[in-house]
Specification:
Layout lengths: L6 E8 L8 H12 L3 H22 L7 E8 L3 E8 L25 H8 L2 E7 L2 E9 L6
Antiparallel strand pairs: 1-2, 2-3, 3-5, 4-5
Length: about 140
């Protein structure tokens, strides 16, 4: 009988841009437990990378004394990713729509949009020690 036990993986990053390179190998390790296909793994990687980039740049303002913590909880047929930083948090409704003509050429503003497009659920929450982005992705049988 298959175990329904939750597996938890954690990665702690310094708030410097080069730390983002650690997200890919971390998620490949996590993916050995859930075995997402190529498309879903790509979606997970892009969304998580965007969340980490935002946490480092906007949440912690690239302050190397602050940290970003990624927690991946792997369930039987889904994954929940929490990206925690020490910042004030974001209100997604305050971010301009990247699809509006006036925003198409902006360098920033696409991260949250990508997260919401690639994941099944994305929530933002403020907590006493910072803020969290919580994303969930359900495994699909049609993914290759």
């Amino acid at each position: 009988m298959a175990s329904s036990k939750i597996k938890i993986f954690t990665l702690i990053l310094k708030s410097i841009p080069k730390e983002v390179a650690k997200v890919d190998p971390f998620l490949k390790k996590v993916n050995r437990s859930i075995k997402f296909g190529e498309t879903q793994f790509h979606n997970l990687l892009v969304a998580t990378t965007e969340a980490v980039n935002n946490s480092i740049a906007h949440g912690n303002h690239k302050d190397s004394s602050k940290f970003v913590t990624i927690t991946a909880k792997v369930f039987k047929s889904s994954i929940k990713i929490q990206v925690h930083d020490e910042g004030e948090g974001v209100k997604p409704e305050d971010i301009p729509n990247p699809l509006e003509d006036k925003n198409l050429l902006r360098e920033n503003g696409r991260g949250i949009f990508l997260m919401t497009q690639f994941m099944d659920n994305v929530t933002f929450e403020r907590c006493p020690q910072g803020s969290n982005v919580i994303m969930m992705l359900r495994k699909r049988k049609t993914d290759r």
